[in-house]
Amino acid sequence: MSYKRLVETVSAYEPDEDLQWIIGRITNSKRVIVFGTGRSGDVADAFAKFLRNIGVDQTFGPNDVPYIFGPCDLLVAISGSGSTQYTVEVAKVAKEGGSFIISLTSDQASPLAAISDKIILIPGARKWKESDYFVDNLLGTSKTPLTPLGTLFELRSLLFLLSVISYIRGQELIESYRKLVSLIKEFEPPSDYYELLYEILPKASEYAKQKTTVLGEGLSGIVGKFFSTRLRHLSKGNAERLVYFWLDKGSIAVRRDDLVFIISGSASEFFANLAEKAKNKGAKVAVVTSFQDSRLSKVSDLTLTIPGRQIVKLKGLRSSYFPQDPTYSVFELRTLFFLESFIHYVAEKENISETDMKMMHSDFT
């Protein structure tokens, strides 16, 4: 699926609810807890950080959920299927504590929806069971092509929640949503980006030795985590693709012929130093950035230029900051959609079906 078609498919959904109530719920709650696991957790993390950045200070993301919920708390739970075990468990605890629960889900008949006070339906997901794999085999449909359904819910949820940020800041929800979509559409990656990245990417195998380590900070880091998960799923049979996100694995030793994949719109000096270190150990380095003439680009084996990152220079401001205006995150959004279209490119090239990828999903969330 091409970048353009992916954007069109995702943007076929538009929020149509009157969500004035959500502003009061967020701003009047003692604490706002945003939770999800996997890619929904990445979306939750982004929303929580944007909320904190616009002044909702008592906001907690999926990695710092409070132990005790109270009646003045708000839980925003994100699960496409509405049956993700860990998310449902957190929602049950919040319910017992008297918290108000808003769920983003594709299934209004799901366990999560059943215990929620408000449901925001976002189409695009259903829970897949391992038994589906055997049914598909019996029906001869296990090799159906990859569709965007694996990420449709998460991509739509992210755009929706970023529009909610703009809505809280006084802008129109639908117009904000359309603006984000328009900015993403204004860019289309050159066709050779896909083959260039594929050539440098370590391949899946039964005894994989070369690994891919994905680096990024701030929203770029969240995009990197999202991509890491999708890339890790991209194999079939007994083959495995070794993929790590640099902050999740603990100590990662880079080896010869590994790939270090860096997402840094600003092409920060910090990542340039890490790239040089990786190169000195014989690893290959690919970078996605808005600045192709940067030092980071010059030390890398492959630079994929995606415009949109604006440099903000303030004393004490880290390069991984989250802007208050979501439209300033257009680099990260374009990168997210490009990398998802790259997943489709690799799946088609290696004849990997959606069922193959689902067999690689976590057994513990």
Describe this entry's structure for a reader:
It is a single chain. The protein contains 14 helices and ten strands. The protein is an alpha/beta fold. The protein folds into two domains: 3-180, Glucose-6-phosphate isomerase like protein, domain 1 (Rossmann fold, 3-Layer(aba) Sandwich); 191-358, Rossmann fold. Helix 3 links the parallel strand 1 and strand 2 (59-60). Helix 10 (218-232) runs parallel beside helix 13 (330-349). The longest helix is centred in the middle third of the chain and has 20 residues, at 149-168. The chain is globular. The protein starts with a helix and ends in a 7-residue tail after the last helix.
Shape verdict: globular
- Strand residue content: 5-15%
* CATH fold topology of the largest domain: Rossmann fold
Q: Strand arrangement, largest sheet?
A: 2-1-3-4-5
Q: Termini separation (Å)?
A: 28 Å
State the name of the first-level CATH class of the largest domain.
Alpha Beta
Count the strands? 10
Question: What's the CATH superfamily of the largest domain, by name?
Answer: Glucose-6-phosphate isomerase like protein, domain 1
Key features?
2 domains, single chain, globular, Rossmann fold, 14 helices
Structure, briefly:
Helix content is 43%, strand content 12%. With 365 residues, it is α/β, with parallel strands linked by helices. The two termini are 28 Å apart.
Itemize the secondary structure elements and their pairings:
Elements: H1 3-10, H2 20-28, E1 31-35, H3 38-53, E2 59-60, E3 73-78, H4 85-96, E4 100-105, H5 111-114, E5 118-121, H6 130-139, H7 149-168, H8 173-185, H9 192-200, E6 212-215, H10 218-232, E7 243-245, E8 259-263, H11 269-280, E9 284-289, H12 295-299, E10 302-305, H13 330-349, H14 354-358
Parallel strand pairs: 1-2, 1-3, 3-4, 4-5, 6-7, 6-8, 8-9, 9-10
Helix pairs in contact: 3-7, 3-10, 7-8, 8-13, 10-13
